[in-house]
Design brief:
This protein has about 230 residues and is of the alpha/beta class. It has one domain: Rossmann fold. It is built from 7 helices and 7 strands. It has a 7-stranded parallel sheet, sandwiched between helices. Helix 5 links the parallel strand 5 and strand 6. Helix 3 packs parallel to helix 4 and helix 5 runs parallel beside helix 6.
Length: about 230
Amino acid sequence: MITDDLDKKNTIFYMVDMQNDFVNPNGALYVPNAETLIPTIQRLQAYARDNGIREYASVDRHFFSDAEITDAPDWSKTFPPHCMDGTIGQKIVDELKLAGADYIGNKLDEAGQQNFYKYDDLLIELGTLEKVVFEKQSNDVATNKHFAEAIWYLKSQQGITNVVVYGVATDYCVKDAVKAFQDNGFGVFVVRDAIAGISQDNSNKALDDFVAHDARLISSLDILRRDHG
């Protein structure tokens, strides 16, 4: 069961890459069974909103100039075009959109338009916003240049110590998100029935690694049945 210190005062919910290109069976890089996670994640989102828990998320936002994008992928560090800027595939699926969320960009787009916050602006905004989505151009959300300052702010100024993680894919972006939060001293709770991976073997290895590094594997019911403080 979840420990007593996991409550709405010190916890954020964090949704990884529930975008059309990953979730839709016709998407560019479909994650098997990803669409089946939607009802469970909807219940987690409703729970967060009913209990005043902050909702954070990540999304891929790719450009053809990104190092990860290639027509000759190795399927480890490089992949075919997916979640391309301006496409439907890049958007969070309609059922899980975070209405009113602020998107924290990471680079100049290919038209030369700035889409990320200045350092001071980011800290000011995070002082009031409840929903934030980090954009990234690789598997690892920590590559967003504002990730470290944002989570430092959550810990030092907002008292956030725990992160509940769900989304796709277990063996890629979920794995890297768990590591990023653990590396920054957060307690991480992975909702096992709200994640899906590409390779079953690699996903199982990722789950083993989570536990080896003190992440907790929980079910959505562990949260939904809990009366948070």
